[in-house]
């Protein structure tokens, strides 16, 4: 799709030998949760960072800096690098991904009469789309009032009214991803197993590079070797450096990555974390610790805390959003896998009950299949 998404045919970047094992960050006891001292310093750590509270040095997979890419509007991450043909292709894929909900909704208005039966069928269709009880009740109440006040008599008019109400409901979730606010901008990525966190990080890295940003990745999922390897592959594809350890405390990896980015003057750091269920309280506590340790590496960080959710999880996504938001104070969501059996209505439920901004949505495995969320486009894909 985008020419800059093509995989570069570079040799695998050299891998620096990891430093000898060092102490992991201290146990989580209030202020004592900063990373522990490293006995051996890695050569890339600047002299001013070589002090007692430095964490264990992480293995670094280095890569040459990416070539400058065309920037979008100043300060915002936008999709204006797409051609009209590419945008049309994206809309077709989005509509195909949401076809299950779309078919249930659009067929209701074909030759329909404006009566209680139509509202009953619309209620059932919205509930089946995972819109949830609160959002469904809100939409139906507002639709009845709009039909009455505007004296709508045609099914097509009612469908247009529903479109307007859905856009109004979802519009607060649409928020531009602003770049250049901090140096570096630190992003922490969380989510349950299988949601697509690592793949999303790889896609976001390329998206950020397309807007002229240098990127550093931190392989904070130290529990799963495959996750580190997967992130390293994405780093190689994008010519992005990856900070990793074969084992140890993920907070130390995150701390190392932030300090390395400060020394290199890297624009963006993305920290991967291990997938976990919200009910695994001890693991959720570890996520909180990672967040605090990142803040010790750079005041005010992480600046973005994103939750990646699978669009096929339905109402369970609401429980995930609430649990992770309570633990980490989320700044945004990335909704993936809308090309499967996704029902789409879950965004309406999120908007009504827990309105965390949706930065990106994904409809496939390709890099161009992850795009900024646009409420009007999403509703059009549902109702056309």
Automatic annotation (TrEMBL):
Highest taxon, organism lineage: Bacteria
Pfam families tied to this protein: SRP54 (PF00448), SRP54_N (PF02881)
EC numbers on record: 3.6.5.4
Record's keyword terms, sorted: Cell membrane, Cytoplasm, GTP-binding, Hydrolase, Membrane, Nucleotide-binding, Receptor
Region Disordered, annotated ranges: 1-74
UniProt-listed CDD domains: FtsY
Limits of the SRP54-type proteins GTP-binding domain: 357-370
Binding site for GTP: 191-198, 272-276, 336-339
SMART domains: AAA, SRP54, SRP54_N
InterPro entries documented for this protein: AAA+_ATPase (IPR003593), P-loop_NTPase (IPR027417), Signal_recog_particl_SRP54_hlx (IPR013822), SR_rcpt_FtsY (IPR004390), SRP/SRP_N (IPR036225), SRP54_GTPase_dom (IPR000897), SRP54_N_sf (IPR042101)
UniProt cross-references to Gene3D superfamilies, sorted A to Z: P-loop containing nucleotide triphosphate hydrolases, Signal recognition particle SRP54, nucleotide-binding domain
Family matches, as NCBIfam families: ftsY
Family per similarity comment: Belongs to the GTP-binding SRP family. FtsY subfamily.
Role summary: Involved in targeting and insertion of nascent membrane proteins into the cytoplasmic membrane. Acts as a receptor for the complex formed by the signal recognition particle (SRP) and the ribosome-nascent chain (RNC). Interaction with SRP-RNC leads to the transfer of the RNC complex to the Sec translocase for insertion into the membrane, the hydrolysis of GTP by both Ffh and FtsY, and the dissociation of the SRP-FtsY complex into the individual components.
Assembly information from the UniProt record: Part of the signal recognition particle protein translocation system, which is composed of SRP and FtsY. SRP is a ribonucleoprotein composed of Ffh and a 4.5S RNA molecule.
Name of the protein in its database record: Signal recognition particle receptor FtsY
Biological source species: Noviherbaspirillum aridicola
Gene: ftsY
């Amino acid at each position: 799709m985008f020419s800059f998404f093509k995989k570069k045919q570079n040799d695998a970047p050299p891998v620096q030998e990891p430093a000898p094992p060092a102490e992991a960050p201290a146990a989580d006891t209030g202020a004592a949760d900063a990373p522990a001292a490293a006995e051996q310093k890695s050569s890339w750590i600047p002299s001013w960072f070589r002090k007692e509270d430095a964490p264990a040095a992480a293995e670094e997979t280095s890569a040459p800096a990416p070539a400058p890419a065309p920037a979008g509007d100043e300060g915002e991450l936008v999709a204006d690098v797409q051609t009209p043909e590419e945008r049309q292709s994206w809309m077709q894929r989005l509509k195909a991904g949401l076809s299950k909900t779309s078919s249930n909704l659009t067929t209701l208005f074909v030759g329909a009469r404006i009566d209680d039966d139509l509202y009953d069928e619309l209620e059932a269709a919205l509930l089946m789309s995972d819109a949830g009880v609160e959002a469904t009740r809100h939409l139906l109440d507002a639709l009845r009032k709009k039909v009455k006040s505007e004296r709508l008599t045609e099914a097509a008019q009612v469908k247009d009214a529903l479109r307007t109400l859905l856009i109004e409901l979802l519009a607060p979730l649409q928020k531009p991803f602003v770049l250049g606010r901090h140096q570096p901008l630190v992003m922490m990525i969380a989510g349950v197993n299988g949601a697509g966190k690592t793949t999303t990080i790889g896609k976001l890295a390329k998206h950020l590079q397309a807007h002229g940003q240098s990127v550093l990745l931190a392989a904070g999922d130290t529990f799963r070797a495959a996750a580190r390897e997967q992130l390293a592959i994405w780093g190689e594809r994008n010519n992005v450096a990856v900070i990793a350890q074969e084992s140890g405390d993920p907070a130390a990896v995150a701390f190392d990555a932030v300090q390395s980015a400060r020394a290199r003057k890297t624009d963006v750091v993305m920290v991967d974390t291990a997938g976990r269920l919200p009910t695994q309280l001890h693991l959720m506590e570890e996520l909180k610790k990672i967040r605090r340790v990142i803040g010790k590496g750079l005041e005010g960080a992480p600046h973005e805390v994103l939750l990646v959710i699978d669009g096929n999880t339905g109402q369970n996504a609401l429980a995930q959003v609430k649990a992770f938001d309570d633990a980490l104070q989320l700044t945004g969501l990335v909704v993936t896998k809308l090309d499967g059996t996704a029902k789409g209505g879950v965004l309406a439920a999120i908007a009504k009950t827990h309105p965390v901004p949706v930065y990106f949505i994904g409809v496939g495995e390709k890099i161009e299949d992850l795009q900024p969320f646009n409420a009007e486009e999403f509703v059009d894909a549902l109702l056309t």
